Amino acid sequence: MSDKQSHKRINDILLGPLERPALQWLAAHMPTWMTPDLLTIIGILGAVIILTGYVLSNENAAFLWLATFGFVINWFGDSLDGTLARYRKIERPKYGFFVDHTVDAFSQLLIFAGIGLSPYVSFELAMLALVGYLLMSILVYVDTYVTGVFKISYGKLGPTEMRAIAIILNIAFLYFGVPTIDLSFVQISIYDLVTLLIASILILIYIFSTIRRAGELARLERPPV
Question: 4-220 — its CATH code?
Answer without folding.
Answer: 1.20.120.1760
